[in-house]
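Much of what follows relies on a compact textual record of a protein's fold. A complete example follows; check for yourself that the lines match position by position.
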Amino acid sequence: MKRLCFCGLVGVSLWASFGLPAAAGECVVASVQPLATDAGLEAYRRGGNAIDAAVATALTLGVVDTPNSGIGGGCFILIRRANGAIAAIDGREMAPAAATRDMFLRDGKAVPQLSQTGPLASGVPGALAAYSKAINEHGALTLPELLRPAADIAEQGFALDRVYARRLASTAEVLRRFEGSAAALLKPDGSPYAEGETLKQPNLARTYRAIAEHGPEWFYDGPFSKRVGAWMAANGGVITTDDFASYRAVAREPVRSTYRGWDVVGFPPPSSGGIHVAQILNMLESFDLATEKQRDPVGATHLIVEAMKLAFADRAYWLGDADFAEVPAGLVDQVYADELAGEIERGSVAVVDGHGDPPDAATRLFNRQTAERHTTHIAAADTEGNWVAITATVNTSFGSKVVVPGTGVVLNNEMDDFSAQPGVPNAFGLLGAENNSVKAGKRPLSSMSPTIVLKGGEPVMTLGAAGGPKIITQVVLGLVRTLDYGMPLGEAVAAPRFHHQWRPDVVMIEEAAPASLGTGLSRIGHEVSSGRSAGVTQAIGLDPSGGLIGVHDPRVPGKVGRAQRD
C-alpha cells in the first residue's frame, strides 16, 4: 500500500491547513463546497444562528452538490441549542402508500436495478420538511431568506469542481435515459460538463423561488407534487400526490451513551448510526486503546475492527424503522457490549456467524414515534452555544437519476436502502433482514450518523460523514482518535481510515495507510483490501484555547469558514 505522510499536518500547521478558530460572537461552518459554506456564513451575518447557517448550507448544497444531496432526498438533523436542549429531526424518505414488500422481486428474485434507478427507486423526499421544521422551531431567520440565495446560484450557475465533474461523467449515460435529467444536468448534445465549466439550473432556481414564495406546501401539496405524481403515473412509478401531502418530518428521541466520561449523542432509528456508534464505543471501553496503540498499533486496529464486525452483524438483523420494527434498546446497553467485547481476542480473528441477542430484545424497544446516502455532512456551531450536525443524501450519485421535467430536482433512490429480499446486498453491499423490509409509509434504514459530544453538559465536538456504511466507522474513528489517542481533530479526520461491515468479511484500508498495517492485520488472519477513500468527514470541535475549530476532510474539495454578525 502507498503511504501518505500527514506529519506536516499537526499542531498549528494542521489548523492553518484544515480549520479556523473562532472568537467570541462567531459561527463556524464546514461543508464539502465553498459556495455552500459561504451561504451558511452569510445567513449568520444576517442575524441567524448556527441552525440557520447549517440549513442555508444544506439548501445550497442541493444546488452545487446535487450528486450527493438536495430537496429530492432526505436528512437527519441533530441540534444542541444554546439553552442545552437537544433536538433530533428525522427527514428520512418514506416508502409510498403503494409500496409492497416484494415490489423489487421478479420471478422470486430481487432485481437491484429497480430499487436503484428509475421511477420505482424513489421514496417520498423529506429534506425540505426537516429543514423547514428546524428553522421554524430553532432558527432566527425564515426559510425564504435561506432559499433565495441558493436560487440565485442555481440561476447564475457555478463552476464544477473535480468531484462533481467526475460524478457527472460517470453517470451521464444513465442520466441521458431521462429527459428531465439530461436537460437539467447535461449539455444540449448530451455530454457532461467538465471541471471548471459552468452549470446553470434555471428550473431548480424556479422551484426554490416558488417554495420561498408559497412555502413548503407548494412542494408537498401543490404544483411540485402534482407534477411528480403525474410523471410517476406515466412512467411506471408509484409515488402519488397524496404521498407527498401525507409526509411529515418527525421529532425523535436521540440515542445517548457515554464513553470514558464524555456524553455521546446520536440519531435513533431509522438511523443505524447512533445505535452502532454507541455499541462499538461501548465494546471498546473494555480496552485501554491508548496504551494498546502505543504498544501495538496493529493490535489496536484489530480490536476496533472486531468491534465493528460484531456491531454490523447486529445491524443486519435487528435494525429498521422503529415505527414498524421491534428494535431492541438493549443494543446500546453497556452490559451487552461487555458480553460482546468478551468475544474479542487480541491477535485472533473471531468468526461472527450472525447477530447477538441483546437483553429484553422482545420487550424493551426503541420508542415508536408519531409525527408532530451518496451523502454529505454539514457541521455548524456558534459561540452562543448552538451546535448542529446535518447529514443529507439522495443515496447513490444523483439518486435515482430521475429529474422530473421542469423541476430541476434530483429524486433519491432510497428505496434501495430497504432490504428488497433478506440476505441480498444493496448498492453498498449491506445485508438486511425482515425488520428493514419494504412497507408502505416506512422509512428505510440509514447509516447516517450525525453526532454531538458533550462534556459536563457542554458541547465539545460535532461530526458526521458521507460514505454509506463507512459513515458509522468514520465517526467511530474520529471519536477514538480524538478522545482516546488525543489527536487534534484535523489530524484525526485526515489520518487514513479502515472499515469492516461484517459482510463481506474483509477489512478495507485506505491506500494512504502504512503498508505495515495491512500486512499486520493479514498476519493475524484478517482478509484485507485497499481502497482510495473510506468516506468524507466534516467536524467542529474546541481548540486548546476554548474557541471553535472547524475541519473539512482533505480527501475532497471543501471549505471551513467563520463569520461575525454585521
